[in-house]
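haha ok so turns out i had the wrong file open the whole time. this is the CORRECT one, sorry everyone. sequence first:
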Amino acid sequence: MLRDERFSKRGIEDRIQEVSESIKRDEVALFCGAGISKNSGLPLANELKKSMLEKLSANEEEIVEIARSKLPFEAFMGIVRFNEDISKVLDVFRGGKPNTNHILIARLARSGHVRVILTTNFDLLIEKAMKKEGMKRGLDFRVFYDEDQFSAVSSGNLDMIRVGVFKIHGSVEDKKSIRTTLDEVASRTLSDKRMDLIRYLFSTGPHKKVLILGYSCSDLFDITPQIQNIDGNRKEVLFVEHSNSERTEDIRTRREKNPFANFAGTRLACDTDQFIERIWNSLKSEIGEYAIRTFETPWRKRIEDWGKALDENKGCLKYFITGSMLYSISDFRKAIACFRKTLEIDKEVEDEVGQAACYGSLGNAYHGLGEFENAVKCFEGSLEIAKRIRDRKKESSSYTNLGTVYFDMGKFNEAIRFHDKSLEIDRTIGDNAGEAASLAGLGNAYQGLGEFDKAIEYHKRSLEISEWLGEKTGETTCYTNLGNAYHGLREFDRAIEYHGRSLKIARQIGDRAMEARCYTNLGIVYFDRGEFDRAIEYHGRSLKIARQIGDRAMEARCYTNLGIVYFDRGEFDRAIEYHGRSLKIARQIGDRAMEANCFINLGDVYRDLKNLKKAIKLYSRSKAILEKIGQTPLLDIVRNRLVNIYETGRIQEY
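then structure:
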């Protein structure tokens, strides 16, 4: 044991020496996360998140649940920002003072050893450190933080820049740049120009290595998928991870939370403060003597002020934002409780705009649970208010939501009626994005009726608008819909082609949830082609992403799909295992429709195992749930299963 420890420490020292030599040869670019700003007087992401949650209506259980979820900090902030001004919160990042990490970075830049610095941080500490070291902004270094400035990467102008600081998530000096980031991350996309930055750092830039400091690999919705999707040339990665023990390992070794699985490089686990000190001392002849700099600031006061502003209207916003957080992590039951409380307050203060929003959010949550009748009632409530206050855009979205629910209920003609109404309004008010969504809804409804050619016509019209708007998320959805339509026509090759196009865009824009759905759709096509091994492969890929991004509902659906494949292969034990996993999650997240579906699938397995009493028991449990939540398509299926067992005379009584 002692021998291994000495070997590990020797490995760390060797790696630190290699890093130092690479820096001296000007071979290194830097990638910095929030961890470098610890001890600078600013909160780390999780500290700020927890502090903000405490100012919302969340109870301790909800705070822990949201804090432990895989919802990235930027997505968390995006939800808050969508509902409330967060300027006071963002002002936290104006404070603080450069710590030892920032001073080291500034001195490496001043000495000419590091020219490219990419950071996810909003704060101004790297810039402050460079100014402190006598560097002039615009002359000795330039800072890039918005879409227009990032075009320098695309246009190949970086060779003309002495030192570039690229703030990929924006900068607090321009809050608009941060709001753009939050909107992108909340929608699980990343702009082309930001993607170019990541490719430049990890693939196309002139440097040979990337030194990573203070980064947690938690940007699951934007940066991580882009790093994972880099093909061809990849830079060598030196990843410094804070740890109380010292060791080194190949960067590719770790399976979870590792976007660098395809890169050459090393993970250095060590005390990061000691690492910085060692690097500094190995270069002190060029950058000066090492000195510790740590600071504290009263940043919590700004969060207190922000929290007080949420107390207006009896704290209505607190409940709504908390509900939105819980909805985003698929805890629909708790989200509904928050939205109900918000609605109660909105009615009390006679805020009809707020009521419409609450009904819409409640409808989405009930829809997520598969409680379609409740969802319809809520969307009808939103529609009624939208008409009364003459909000045409809200009216259109209410029709779209109703069309989507009726589609899932198997009432396709009703779905068409509502999507037609939505389409008419979208065209009247000139809402192109809304028009594309309505056309897609119509395509899905006609597909449900088996009119696949008509469905394809609508999906292609939707695709044309999305392409014209440059709306990549819309494009990938259209390709998915076309893939499903061709699948319905049993044109498997064309279905695979369109799902492949959707997958390509999803990976380009970093939409991990859509990427997982593409893998699921491909798995279903290969299953119907009888290629079970390929189906298992793609469902497995979808499952991996679902776990990574913390989407429990998607994870459950992946288990269901795997259970169905193993059932058709006659591997009943594995089918039961996977359907059981899906059932467990369905119960945890309160999805009654999914729970009922799991009972049907398990019933099918036991039916084929000739355990008919067990099958009937499972079908009956499903039937009871479906009758309660009013989901007709599944209810018809389970009734037919029961009738088939009894009428064939295979069992006389139960």
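DSSP finds 31 helices and eight strands in the chain.
again sry for the mixup
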